[in-house]
Amino acid sequence: MSKVLINVANLVKHFTLATSNPFVRDKPVVRAVDGVSFTVSEGETLGLVGESGCGKSTVGRLILNLLPASSGAVEFDGHDILSMDSAGMRSVRKDLQIIFQDPHASLNPRMTVEEIILEPLYAQGHKRTPELRAYAAELLEMVGLPARFRNRHPHQFSGGQRQRIGIARAIAPKPKLVVCDEAVSALDVSVQAQVINLMQDLKAKMGMSYLFIGHDLAVVRHISDRIAVMYLGRIVEIARCDDLFSRPLHPYTQALMAAIPVAHPRLRHKRDRVRGELPSPLSPPKGCHFHPRCPFAQDICRSEAPQLRQMGDEHQASCHFAEDLPEKATAAQ
Amino acid sequence: MSSDTPILSIRDLTVDFAPKSGRLPAVSNVSFDVTAGEMMCVVGESGSGKSVTALAIMGLLAADTAISGNILFEGRDITRLSRREWQKIRGRQIGMIFQEPMTSLNPVFTIGRQLVETIRHHERVSVRAARDRAVELLDMVGIPSPRSRLDDYPHQMSGGMRQRVMIAIALICSPRLLIADEPTTALDVTIQGQLLDLLNDLRSETGTAIMLITHNMGVVAEVADRVTVMYSGCVAEQAEVMQIFDHPAHPYTSGLMNCTPKLTVTSAQLNTIPGSMPNPAAAPPGCLFAPRCELAIDACSEGRPAQVNLTGNHSSACIRAEMLLGESAE
Lengths: 333, 330
What we know:
The structure holds two protein chains of two kinds. Chain A is α/β, with parallel strands linked by helices. Chain A has helices spanning 56-63, 86-93, 113-123, 130-142, 159-171, 189-206, 217-223, 241-246, 251-259, 299-303, 325-332; strands at residues 4-16, 29-41, 45-49, 71-76, 79-80, 96-99, 177-181, 209-214, 226-231, 234-240, 309-312, 315-317. Chain A has a single domain, classed as Rossmann fold (3-Layer(aba) Sandwich), CATH 3.40.50. Chain A has eleven helices and twelve strands. In chain A, the strands form two sheets. Chain A has an eight-stranded mixed β-sheet, sandwiched between helices. Chain A is globular and about 70 Å long. The two termini of chain A are 38 Å apart. The model of chain A has no long low-confidence stretch (mean pLDDT 91). Chain B is α/β, with parallel strands linked by helices. Chain B has helices at residues 50-58, 83-89, 111-122, 127-140, 146-149, 159-171, 189-206, 217-223, 241-246, 251-258, 321-329; strands at residues 6-17, 24-35, 39-43, 66-73, 76-77, 94-97, 177-181, 209-214, 226-231, 234-240, 308-309, 315-316. In chain B, the strands form two sheets. In chain B, strands 6-7-8-3-9-10-12-11 form an eight-stranded mixed β-sheet, with helices on both faces. In chain B, strands 2-1-4-5 form a four-stranded antiparallel β-sheet, covered by helices on one side. Chain B is globular, with a radius of gyration of 21 Å. The two termini of chain B are 32 Å apart. At the A-B interface, helix 5, helix 6, helix 7, helix 8 and helix 9 of A face helix 6, helix 7, helix 8 and helix 9 of B.
């Protein structure tokens, strides 16, 4: 197995809410990320899936130190990210980049495309030289845009083209890890496929790793080597792609898979939908966070929080009944 | 379940924006029917004209848009109605739910008040009776403990719950037709599944026809009876759902299906449709899809292709449709 590039251990982020009541001593706390651990190896893509509010984007921000973590450790390429000052972070960010979801909001409308994609290099102390400008042109070609567009502004591009510019900016410093935070979610299907292919080509060419954050399991499966499933601030299951899909060992993973629309009308079937909605992260349920929605919940699930347990080669799940789940799920069908 | 009489019939609908400062065609020569009790899906990407078509049906387009063609609702042309006549149809006989459950409810009123207001606008009933009816409706759309939720403000509800409230409001007058414009797009996939089930159940219980607008072929595969595929303001293809998935007769339809990542297929590369949708102000002269089409021949850039009737209710606006159909039959 190749070298571990980033090691995230027991990462926690609590947001304390302001309250107008001066007599409330314990201010409400949102446990957005509540003890998340994973690793990403060199050249690997780890998918991070979950529904809105599960904390997946917060994880992305924490490991780039864009948000200060409450506790935990992030070791990236030998550096302890969470204890770094801004000067130290600047040198690390050369290797650690991010692509954002909204291609309309993440590009400065007053800058030209060339300035946008060279910005990370200027931040590293590079000067605007003819070589650097040639490099910008090369980057544009790499992401499938003609180099003659380099003096245009973001508003002159479509959503898909803007996302390509965001990608060019992220790969400009030749990073080792790129966090893709819902990078293709805002795009139309036909454009989404183009951008996914582009991201895979670039990865093969440059040998970088991705942390691919998304909510669409089909898209995440397509691009990832391994997948971590998050629910209410915790990872509930993590496994190699094929393993996760052929043998999901957490009821939430099963529910997510069952909710994906069928690929052909002939495959329609009446199914048991997961009931209810994501509980408020302000007052998460006791025990297993998923128990109020889980069809298999027992007494122990209501009182004891399950730990992430090793269930096989590179397969971990946090369900008290992970061993029996495959049979239970088939019996229920 | 569905009978053959169309309750909505659109013929050659054309919508142009800002006709004074230069023509910007949003919808061109769109024709389709929705029959009673059916689930008709209109599928297309951003800019395909699917939402503009819905707004035209509801009479909700701005005054300076030029609309031509006919929209027949139960045999009556509704494009030239007065404001008063419109009010008898909108909400009462045609209901609509929008994509954004966050912005389509009024944030300063409780949802109970918004429901009661709408009920009393349409029916002469007391506030108490209207509240009872509101509870009934909220229960019908699957909101738990509906009576206590009446006094909630929209911000106290999740996106999925708000969309259920929107559906409840649209159902007040038991409309004959419900237009749902991307009702699940802003929602999580588990909630999307719940809402699609709900729409399907409501349709079979009340017999309301649903025109569901979506960009997601998965949603189409899940619920549609019939499908209209739109591209760049035009109808590309129409057919029964099985036919369109088994034998697509327009290259855009098959492109759309092929580039959707699927759980069952894992290949290194996704199929793509190269390029992007043309700018409506500078549309190519021939088939609008020709610049992105792998099968385009010279004839494709000579004039807009007309709808070709294939088998049964299947039609396609591709001059090579018969060839495509022959290929997929083999």
